[in-house]
Design goal:
Length: about 130
């Protein structure tokens, strides 16, 4: 598995924290501060995983997600939407738009690791 993650968040601090944590889990990372730049990076880096902030200026995460899912991207990136929205309606909207998972912000790394395991993104056994 190509363990590359695109981190999309308008906060440089959030991107930095997530990048360090994912690096420690063996992931390489690239970053984008807006949904528009995320779409460009997805085309350029073919990430396995996208951590996508919901609330961003220019293009929010949900709009970016819908644009992603309207394209045929191979491999299909797994998307975890990161949100401070706890409303079940918002969460359902995200899942219907093609999010594979969602996680509450601020992101707790233990919870994120659990989600990665559920999504089959945790390497088991010996490294190749
Ligand atoms: Mg934000």
């Amino acid at each position: 598995m190509n363990r590359h993650c695109l981190i999309v968040d308008d906060s440089a601090t959030v991107r930095h924290v997530l990048r360090n944590s994912l690096n420690n889990l063996g992931w390489s990372c690239s970053e984008a501060p807006t949904g528009v730049q995320a779409l460009e990076k997805i085309a350029a880096t073919s990430p396995t995983l996208v951590l996508l902030d919901w609330n961003m200026p220019v293009m929010d995460g949900l709009t970016c997600l819908k644009a992603m899912r309207a394209k045929t991207l191979l491999p299909r990136p797994i998307v975890i939407l990161c949100t401070s929205e706890s409303s079940i309606f918002k969460i359902r909207e995200a899942l219907e738009a093609g999010a594979d998972e969602y996680i509450m912000k601020p992101v707790d790394m233990d919870i994120l690791e659990g989600k990665l395991a559920q999504l089959g993104l945790v390497q088991t056994g010996c490294a190749a």
